Amino acid sequence: MTVFWNSQRSTILIRKTKKTVDFFSNANNTCVMCNNDISGKKDCQETIRRTTQQQEAVAKLIEKLKTQYGEKTENPGYPLEKEKLLLTALRKGDVDEAKKELNEILATLLFFNAGQIKHVQLRAIELVVLISRIDINPVKTGSISMETNDNNLKMIQDAKTSEELIGILHQTVDRAADNISSFRGIPHAAALRKAERFIMENFTRKISLNEIARVAGLSPSYFSTIFKDEMGENLSKYLNRQRVEKASRLLLETDMSLTEIASCCCFEDQSWFSKIFKAYTGISPGKYRNQGGNIVVGNNP
């Protein structure tokens, strides 16, 4: 079902299609294309209401930044701490806190990169990739999860306005929260969540299977088995993936040398770092930095 809504006339036109793949809006005339099946006018109005709230929340935060910094100010860079808080909130299942942090990230990006939609798109792509790493639902097949993630990335690449990006990222957070909620219903979910939190807090140092299994309250051999079954990859690959993603951000956000980044992300040396990084991204760390990160981390070596 596709819904067109004009805020000035407050009229709704419903077309007889089951669902579409995107939605966008602006301050005066809003076009909402609902991603999920819609049963009637009431659901359409609810979708419009949520979309309007998302736009207004980000707009208010941008106004606060204008008051705080004025129209001309030096870009303080990407809010990495807010990103960490967003991912932490999602892992805990706190969708309200996750959306609060998401709105602050979006407001910062849009305010300090006004008129630079391509830059905001690149950041949005990175954020979707990070969220997808914790968007785990073993009940669903991996292909469905991958297809959803690919659709999100394509929608971001095709987005023409900041309003579209806001809506897509909010949808991504909603889906991740739903899947994480489903994940809680599987056996050993609590143990795996404890392990995952421990890994995310400690992956930049050497951590062993025994140490992680002890945190989860399971034997190393059993933990290793259920971890691979439920997460879709073994512990070693999971750790390397987290380290590569951390390294990719440091390559873009800092002037640290490759040797420093390798050490910071717990790679044995620069040579090993380059080998693992290329296995996951397809290019070397140096080339990744020179290209401005114009590649999505996610290959499965």
Largest sheet: 3 strands, antiparallel
Number of domains: 2
What radius of gyration results from the CA coordinates? 21 Å
Assign an overall shape: globular
Q: Low-confidence parts, pLDDT < 50 over ≥5 residues? A: 1-40, 136-144
Short descriptors:
mainly alpha, 301 residues, 2 domains, Arc Repressor Mutant, subunit A
What would you note in describing this structure?
It is globular and about 55 Å long. Helix content is 65%, strand content 5%. It has helices spanning 41-69, 80-92, 95-112, 117-134, 142-158, 162-183, 189-202, 209-216, 220-231, 235-253, 258-264, 270-281, 285-290, and strands spanning 2-6, 11-15, 29-33. Residues 1-40 and 136-144 have low confidence and may be disordered.
In short:
This protein is mainly alpha-helical.
Secondary-structure blueprint:
Layout: E1 2-6, E2 11-15, E3 29-33, H1 41-69, H2 80-92, H3 95-112, H4 117-134, H5 142-158, H6 162-183, H7 189-202, H8 209-216, H9 220-231, H10 235-253, H11 258-264, H12 270-281, H13 285-290
Antiparallel strand pairs: 1-2, 1-3
Helix pairs in contact: 1-3, 1-6, 2-3, 2-4, 3-6, 4-5, 4-6, 5-6, 7-8, 10-12, 11-12
